[in-house]
Amino acid sequence: MANIRRLDILRVRNLSEVQIRPADRVNIIYGKNGSGKTSLLEAIHLLGLGRSFRSAKLEPVIDTNANDCVIFSELEEGVSIGLNRTRRDGQTLKLMGERQRSWIETARYLPLQIINSDSFSLLEGSPKIRRRFLDWGVFHVEHEFALAWRKVSKCLSQRNLLLKQRRLDVEQLQAWDQELAQQGQHIDEYRKRYVALFLPALEQVLPGLISLPELRIRYERGWDESLSLADALLQQRERDQRYGATQNGPHRADLQIRIGRNAAHEVLSRGQQKLLVSAMKIAQSQLLHRVSGNKSVYLIDDLPSELDMENRSRICQLLEELGCQIFITCVDAEELENCWSKELRAGKFHVEHGKITPLC
Ligand SMILES: Nc1ncnc2c1ncn2[C@@H]1O[C@H](COP(=O)(O)OP(=O)(O)OP(=O)(O)O)[C@@H](O)[C@H]1O
Ligand SMILES: [Mg+2]
Questions:
Q1: How many Å apart are CA 352 and CA 222, to the nearest integer?
Q2: Is the CB of 33 within 6 Å of ligand 1?
């Protein structure tokens, strides 16, 4: 599933009223600075994942002159997703007309990948960003993952509350430890299984973009490899009490991305980093398609920055081969016109002062 057939956006940043019917493959969104291109991608991201990629808070996304925003999309096979977000009363998310309490189901229908100027953070940012990348894949491939992760989050918040109390309630702590150890072990298994599929997928994609013979990616599960999580929690209990927070567990996992002995972001140029991150995201989608038949939707903002013409074309070619739906922004449509094969008829949308017009 995926492929957005219709998209309505009301009052998201400067997009007061937008209605478009995107092409099934490539959609080139072009227009001057400040016209609303990134806002369009942001609206799709918000609908699929419940968060923006450029502000932690969601309020700034709502048009400054309005009290709410609405995003609605129709996907293939009659699937519809609608989101209404208000300044005061939170939000309502609906999947095929049914109110949703979380984004879990919606995210399954709309597997979004984003490549933008922030993509470097996958290499140089905190482990949280790499966990998010990893878990995107695990979530779409291992269907038990979401539930196990929810249980882990609950255990962690309860356990951390107990750790902060002056007198430790050992019995309660043991109960939460038991559940955390069990679910954490599951999460680790899902992630390990996924990484074992992901690394060969990346090995296939990478040479099409960049040669990095010394690249090593290693999954770290978040606690000592020689211990069970139950033992790690027990051994580190005093330390956890001192910190008032759990220091071991699947919430501390990471992907080490290195070139030889160095962290990748310390030795690769900006362009090389963008190529590596793009390859990682393309490999994830290839893998998703192979395992589940599902296609991703790509949101690509400002691809031309950091990349020369040849590399832009290489990324576009790989994306085209994926057969996914792509929303890609640029200032002048010509910048991206020749990056695709001749047979592909890209949809073109001109953005001007928050209005979006298809170019027929
Ligand atoms: N909450 C808001 N309400 C109304 N307008 C907003 C809001 N937040 C941002 N804007 C404005 O929306 C416009 C569109 O911003 P956007 O980032 O989408 O532009 P863009 O086309 O991606 O530009 P660039 O080419 O510079 O990246 C900008 O003029 C911005 O100032
Ligand atoms: Mg922009």
A1: 47
A2: yes
